[in-house]
Design a protein that fits this description.
mainly beta, SH3 type barrels, seven-stranded antiparallel β-sheet, 1 helix, 7 strands
Length: about 110
């Protein structure tokens, strides 16, 4: 299965042999130059900053969570273990706006 933007996956981030949920933020590219995906980690630690997007209650997550855009990273697709679900489109839009803010892309209204 090809990861798509807005999908939530369980990923091996190399942190003390733990897997973490991440949301894929990579664009869909049928011919990428590398087998990497861009992701934003999900966390239960909500600091209520503009770098976090509160997620709605999701059946595939056991706790209230936020997307932490300051944790933006990339990893090889082979480190994605299993797809958990998909975020609603409006939440994906909020994450992308938070990324634009964090990266100072000037796209935030």
């Amino acid at each position: 299965m090809t990861p798509k933007s807005g999908d939530v996956w369980l990923a091996d981030l190399g942190l003390a042999a733990k897997t973490r949920p991440v949301v894929i933020v990579s664009r869909t590219d049928p011919d990428p130059p590398r087998a990497l995906i861009l992701y934003v980690p999900l966390t239960t630690q909500n600091r209520q900053s503009r770098y976090e997007v509160t997620l709605p209650r999701l059946e595939f997550l056991d706790r209230d969570s936020v997307a932490n855009v300051q944790g933006l990273g990339s990893l090889p697709r082979v480190r994605l273990e299993r797809r958990l679900g998909k975020l609603p489109d409006d939440v994906v839009g909020k994450i992308k706006r938070a990324l634009a803010f964090a990266l100072d892309l000037g796209l935030v209204a």
